[in-house]
Amino acid sequence: MRFLAALVLALPVFGHVGSPDIFLEGAAGPYPLFITIRPPVVIPGVAEVEIRARTPGIRQVRIVPTPMQGAGAKFAPTPDIATPSKDDAQFFTGSLWMMNSGSWQIRVTAEGDRGTGQLSVPVPALASRTETMGAGLGAILAALGLLLAAGAVAVMGAASGEASLEPDAGFPNAARSRSRRAMGITAAVVLAILYYGNRWWNDEAASYARIVYKPMEMTPSFSGGTLKLELKDPGWLPRQIDDFVPDHNHLMHLYVIALPGMDRVWHLHPDMTSAGKFTHVLPPMPAGRYGLYADVVHESGLPETMVAGIDLPAVAGKPLSGDDSGGASVPTGDSFALAGSGRMIFEREPAYAVKRAYAFRFRVEDAAGKPARDLELYMGMPGHAAFVKRDRTVFAHVHPTGSVPMASLAVANPGAAGHSAHHHDALPAEVSFPYGFPKPGEYRIFVQVRRADGVQTAAFDVTAR
Ligand SMILES: [Cu+2]
What's the mean pLDDT when you consider all of the chain? Predict the structure, then answer.
């Protein structure tokens, strides 16, 4: 009964671990929007879309899913009209069917007083595992199936035997053999249906197993002060191990987190030395076990995060340089003394519920306790945050623009003007990250900003309920 036994589940994977929902602060032309997308758990399945307009004046919002690239991206189906909220004219919701797994986008079109604007949100939907049916349910369904098959044979036998006779006519031999013949033919047909049905299902299951998403494998090693990361594709069709596009000018963003305490964190940028091989000269680090989270974005806009762990000896190391950063990260409540000067203050909400989007706001104060006036862009962003569940089942690298990597956004919105990476005015002393916790538990948030005295790393603990 294997043909009954596989249900295919899909989990979206997009540069995060265990954190499927998508949060994006972006602009559809003249309209700033905050978009939340909850991708379906199964493919085909329904993605839930929530759109909050940051400014009034939008009359209609249209949403449509298309593949990220190829002909399907150009010939989009008729968009759905998102439903405006009855009590809130700036809030729109919709549900969209995602029919295939792969690198998808949801195109959002806003129309209103200031004309029409469009924004495409990358939504990778990848079948990530097949789930087998429980033995109990399988046995029940098998018994019911047998009953159905036996019933069909009996019904056909009766229909061509007793049912064709006059009342009180007895059961002549001719009718008896007609009935037997009908039962034999029916049994043969039923068996053929079962046999070919089973074969068809197994073929389907086998071809699905080939496209079930398997994250790229990453094998770390360490020698002579250099961390080596070797990527391997465990067998998943549309993927290469060397087709990465730079995100914030780097092919890989690697978080190195001391385990189990998470009391030290580094944000490093290994270079690709040959196909699928990355290396990086480590900064000074104490001996111990470290968790590695490596973000990359494929040419298709599909982001992936590889996870690995490594035991390191004490590393004399090379001082941090370029965009690399990190250091001690032991939270001290909602005020974190920065290594340079001043502090970062977490504007904590009274409580955090799971599966709800929040703006996580952090203020930076100078040594005198005044709003810091020396914040700079760090890799094109006012700030970088990593949300890590203490049991390590969740890792999300988030920016003030949300959870979508800029490189994926650029693939989804070709030709769109870049984000605000090019202005050199003083940045506000506050950074804010849109994010929602996928499940309850203890999380640590690593927040990084660049100031005149370099990149500063702060850490805060949050409980999601
Ligand atoms: Cu970042």
Answer: 83
